[in-house]
Amino acid sequence: MASERVVGGLTCAEVLAHLGDFLDGELAPEVLTQVRAHVAGCGACERFGGAYAAAVTALRATEREAALDAEQIASIVASAASAASAAKAG
Ligand SMILES: [Zn+2]
């Protein structure tokens, strides 16, 4: 991952920490505004967020009732990160 850029008042790590709630539509409006501002101004997060969202959507389609544990989240994040760096490199 890239270094900690602050865009829209959030670092990339903070955006990542909010992604789960973002995808659930549970972010507070002011945080949602910051996340959107960050993603709009940060190409890495824009790609990463898209990959993460796709992975979570696919996972939920098969495991709608199951809560994600930390290991599953780490695995999704790792695959999304490699997809993001592949997109960046390509
Ligand atoms: Zn970012």
Secondary-structure-derived class: mainly alpha
Biggest β-sheet strands, sense, barrel: 2 strands, antiparallel
What is the strand tally?
A: 2
The order of strands across the largest sheet is 1-2
Distance between the termini: 16 Å
Strand content: under 5%
Helix and strand run: EEHHHH
Provide the low-confidence segments as ranges: none
Fraction of residues in helices? Answer: over 70%
Small-molecule binders: zinc ion
- Helix tally? 4
- The gyration radius over C-alpha positions equals 13 Å
Mean pLDDT: 78
In the residues, how many domains can be counted? 1
Please tell me what the overall shape is. Answer: globular
How would you portray this structure in words?
This protein has 90 residues and is mainly α. The protein has one domain. The protein has helices spanning 12-24, 29-41, 43-62, 70-89, and strands at 6-7, 10-11. It has a two-stranded antiparallel ribbon with strand order 1-2. A hairpin with a 2-residue loop joins strand 1 (6-7) and strand 2. Helix 1 packs across helix 2, helix 2 (29-41) crosses helix 3 (43-62) and helix 3 packs across helix 4 (70-89). The protein is globular. The mean pLDDT is 78. Zinc ion (ZN) binds at residues 5, 7, 12, 15, 38, 42, 44-45.
Blueprint (SSEs and pairs):
Elements: E1 6-7, E2 10-11, H1 12-24, H2 29-41, H3 43-62, H4 70-89
Antiparallel strand pairs: 1-2
Helix pairs in contact: 1-2, 1-3, 2-3, 3-4
This protein binds zinc ion.
Zinc ion is lined by residues 5, 7, 12, 15, 38, 42, 44-45.
